[in-house]
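Narrative of activities, Objective 1.

The group set out to show that a structural description can be obtained from nothing but a protein's sequence at a throughput compatible with the screening campaign. Below is one input-output pair from the validation batch, recorded exactly as produced.
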Amino acid sequence: MNPTEIRIGFVAIARPTFDIDLARELTDAVFTSLGGAGYTLVGAADLVMDRDAIAERISQLAAADIDMILALQATFADSAMILELAREIDAPLLLWALPEPQLGGRLRINSFCGINLAGHGLRRAGIQYDYIYAAPAEAAALEKLRCFALAAGIKRRLRRARIGRLGERPAGFDTCRVNHQALKTRLGVEVAQFKLAPFFARTQAADQQKVATVSAALETRLVGFDQMDPDATNGTLSAYVTLDEMARAEQLSGMAVRCWPEFFTDLGCSACGAMSLLSDAYTPSSCEADVNGTITQLILQLAADEPAFGSDIVAFDVERDEAVLWHCGLAPLSMADPDVPPEATIHSNRNKPLLMQFPLKPGRVTIARLSEATGEFRLVIGAGEMLKAPAAFTGTSGKIRFDSGAAAVMEGIMGEGLEHHIAIVYGDHLALLEALAKILGLPVLRL
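Output recorded for this entry:
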């Protein structure tokens, strides 16, 4: 996501007994800064100073499908208008107070005291909010606004998200449990359940012209593609075409797939390559029917505007301060080290294609997991540097140096009893994830 996709409901609150000329000047400056950053602003820069004016603005914002509300405290006012706004519009709320010159004269706008009063009223009412206290064009303020706005946008998209769950989690994989009602209540995410047998029947009847198109494209991208078992490879690509069609027809934001053993035993192929292609095409996909993993990938994808990858952490080297991320072969091809041509390969345990094989490219990465290890949702986050290194194992893998160190991360995972899947995406998105967790009311565990 980027600011051009975010719709901000703008309200500048003031009281006529303060310096209205200064209030208008500062409000115009904030409004101009937001427009210059590319946000779509709903609501004018005029000052809202009474109950009739706030009622009119509420009516406008309620009809506008906004991502968030920015309430600018252009001057001091009591909390009534902000409380009414927050109660009527279900959108993340950001308060902005403005400093003023301290020259020994009149207190001209008294803006901070206004958001202080509003914050108390909101807290007493159980309404979540965040705040900025800064001049209109201050860089740190605009960066905090960016993180809040993008997080608000992600929240709104989660409330419209629909995750397809194909099959059930494997026995003994409690890490892949799904709580349909809690996901709907807390995040707004709907989980659509699909059975494997009808999906396999559709896959076996997949449009072979579409399959051939995908196959031709992979021939130019994967070393050794032409050496794979053609029937099994066709099965994986047919599964990809069918999953892609299902995602479009059912309006699915992501897929969580029971990949084994039935893909191998009933369809005669691996699911990994199909999920790699889906994730690379911005339909995040996880194996072992891990719905929370797919949701985490979707969050990271929206945060970074890039595909995300659901992975295991399979090894730690505390002395070298490194860890290894690995999965059978379902990482998006866009994550491949550009200096190492990706290969087609077979599953290491089941000996069936099609899997992607490559080391992950070096660079800054953010990791996350929507976790239920405590029985309640929380957001696990961390960051590190993916190192340039040869593949540690077959399939897709990468060596990472975590910011907090390998020993601390290993202790965090085992000490907290976290899930065995994490998701990664390239770039530094920790501030955005922290803002999202606050908006969603989720505790944060920092790895």
